[in-house]
Amino acid sequence: MADQERKSGVGRFLPIIAILVVAGVGALTLGDQLSFETLRENREALLAFRDSHYGAAVLVFMAAYVVIVAFSLPGATVATLTGGFLFGIFPGAVFNITAATIGATAIFLAARWGFGERLSARMDASEGRVKRIKAALDENQWSMLFLIRLVPAVPFFVANLLPAFVGVPLMRFVLSTFIGIIPGGVVYTSVGAGLGEVFERGEAPDLGVIFEPQILLPLLGLCALAALPIVIKALRGGKEI
User: Fold this and answer.
1) How many other CB atoms are found less than 10 A from the CB of residue 27?
2) Can you give the residue ranges of every domain in the chain?
3) In 3-state terms, what secondary structure has residue 140?
4) What is the pTM of this model?
5) What DSSP assignment string belongs to 170-234?
6) What integer pLDDT is reported at residue 25 of this predicted model?
């Protein structure tokens, strides 16, 4: 029985171990493959395949995007640009956001099944500062989830893993991810939709567009709106961390 429990415990870590291994290998081998230059060089073939097999192009694109996100492979930004380039702002943004959410959910489940549940349970059973931090996180989960999605400085894979470690429910994670990445997803999809002209000029896309005032300020406004419940609770004498 003890051996079976030990094997079961080891088995729980296999998904996250597989993700880490694939992510490491991908970072070493795919960095030059999933790039803007690769998209530029293969744009005509991609457009031809889309025009001849639209449904298959959508499925292949979304499957590739899911794999990139689920295994934290390099090229997520290029994938988003590709979605806009091939399918336009709409439905390209829908394909991008949906695939990103599915991939994020996969790595979230792997992390939670591996050790997220145990870590969350230990935090609940702990005392003192750790317990107060966990209680504060539980009380403000929606706000925190939207904040980590909206703030451009938070890496996407970090925003996928942290919720698994603090016991966020699956549907809450899925909804906050899908809704929270809409602003950034639409911005980068729109950049991808304009790549035809960028290619003709022989230039590179402006990926810093999200930090332009006309885009960054509305994002910061959404961040402030997401943080508002936390601020209100603090002003009303809510729990201190």
Assistant:
1) 12
2) 2-235
3) coil
4) 0.83
5) HHHHHHHHHHHTHHHHHHHHHHHHTHHHHHHHT----GGGGGSHHHHHHHHHHHHHHHHHHHHHH
6) 72
